């Protein structure tokens, strides 16, 4: 008998019992649907994490100054200024794997317009900062070299600050605001960036030239960079190398003897991101495993129904044998029936899973990510389930004694 | 049938022993039998006489414990299960007491079934199944399902199914057991037609009337052939005419009987 005939016979047998066939396939439909939906959710969550880390900046390295030690109590990184402006210049100049490096001097200050006021984070930096953070402008311009050199009183605002001070969707460029009572002109507004992985609002920030920050806001020591250095490596693969290069450069510049602790620290955001991605990956695997269990239960359902079907159709099996069906013909007929149920269930399950994934991703605002190989694996796995759980009933059918089978009531 | 016809069924000292727990049941105790091509043999016997076991062995559904069985020149006792399936498909046609038609399946598809296992292409399957149904007088009902047919019609579908592979031997196991007497005779006319077309027929029955339509009667008792005799078969058509006339007379008598509703 040809394969096509076997499939047609199996199809006819299944169509004779439509409701039962559907209910049997339902187990597989739910199992495959759950796997697809769970993996889609997991992948969506992973993409969300990736997106939020990408929003922090591409291939970001954060260089922080050292610790104070007072009476044996260590103060934590950033408590003692050890990074100098010359260090920053050296990083920019001498580390080949670094594309951009910018200072980040930060305080909290009240910003005042004629009608409104808003207390927010004020950052002193250079134009490179926006390159490091991958942060395009929505309108206006960023500050140029002349603003840095001349310590001009210009400010670039985040969207949240614009919303608070001027109202939603207002055009802030050209407006005057006062920061710590010093008048600044708004020259640019940044595109909306959203939240950090820790839930901070990136857009609740304003930026002024680093020189202006030092002279007007900070005061005090001018040699040391009283903040952090934000740097971006040329590629994701280069972040670790860049970290090593900056470390050796700074150790050399700070004249640290061999064996002494660093008087600075470097955080590699790419590493943090991959750690968090590992977390979501584990979650995805967990969810998919639970879903796979339901697929297995669906397989048991197929076995159950196939066993009932073999018993019910004992006479049919006997007759088929009497008119010339070989044991192999009977085996394949029942196996193909199980396989048809499971593959049909698998295909419907994929559709169901995609629909669920679509619903959930639009509800949570995640991107819908469907890896084609997951669909292949799910359908393939359901076929394996069909064969695995169909084999026993099919063998049972093929081993019936035709005489007994024909006599079966 | 003349003696020059070749032997198609040959049993030599065939025994069959079943084990039921610790008890050995000797269903056949040495049956030697030969049937020539074109014979119509009725096998009779009470239950437990071994006639069903004999039929199963003749039908290649079961193998003898000892002895030789040759069918159409082939030593069946030495074949494996696939070989037996092939013989059942090519050489034999089965007719059962309970018809054994697939429900929710048209007459045509039922008749096609053996051809599926003979690797006959679809178009030829249809043609042959249709021809076979026409031969048993059901050309108009090829798309009917078994549950839309009378018992006699269902048995005729089953006979068409047995014929469709152009078998050399038809094995009929109590084919009239589930039919009323008039329909039984109708079915027997069909068997006599096949007989005159040269098909060898082996029919198991416990009704002497039915055995009367065959050309040879074998009686089984205690696993042995007790009687093996040739006879002048009764003509089924004449018997049918008599039966119909009888029924009509009775119906007429009932209709005219006083006090009838």
Spell out the helices and strands of chain B N to C: EEEHEEHEHHHEHEHEEH
Q: Could you list the spans of chain A in which at least 5 consecutive residues all have pLDDT below 50?
A: none
Strand order of the biggest β-sheet of chain B: 6-7-8-3-9-10
Distance between the termini of chain B: 53 Å
Q: Taking all residues together, what is the mean pLDDT of chain B?
A: 91
**Number of separate structural domains of chain A:** 2
Number of strands of chain B: 10
Q: How many DSSP helices of chain B?
A: 8
Q: Which oligomeric form is depicted?
A: heterodimer
What are the segments of chain B in which pLDDT stays under 50 over at least 5 consecutive residues?
none
What is the CA-based Rg of chain A, rounded? 33 Å
Structural class of chain B: alpha/beta
How much of the sequence lies in strands of chain A comes to 15-25%
Main β-sheet of chain B: number of strands, strand sense, barrel status?
6 strands, mixed
DSSP helix fraction of chain A: 55-70%
Sheet/helix structural class of chain A: alpha+beta
Q: Averaged pLDDT of chain A, please?
A: 86
Number of helices of chain A: 13
Shape of chain B: globular
Can you tell me about this structure?
The complex is a heterodimer of chains A (409) and B (261). Chain A has 409 residues and is of the alpha+beta class. Chain A folds into two domains: 3-52 and 275-407, no CATH class; 81-262, no CATH class. Helix content of chain A is 56%, strand content 17%. The relative contact order of chain A is 0.19. The mean pLDDT of chain A is 86. Chain B has 261 residues and is of the alpha/beta class. Chain B has helices at residues 51-58, 81-90, 107-116, 122-135, 151-163, 181-196, 208-211, 236-256; strands at 7-20, 23-36, 40-44, 66-71, 74-75, 92-95, 169-173, 200-204, 216-221, 224-230. In chain B, strand 7, helix 6 and strand 8 form a beta-alpha-beta unit. Chain A binds chain B through residues 1-2, 5, 9, 12, 16, 315-316, 318-329, 402-403, 406, and chain B through 56, 59, 61-62, 81-82, 85-86, 88-90, 94, 96, 100, 102, 104-105, 113-114, 116-119, 161, 165.
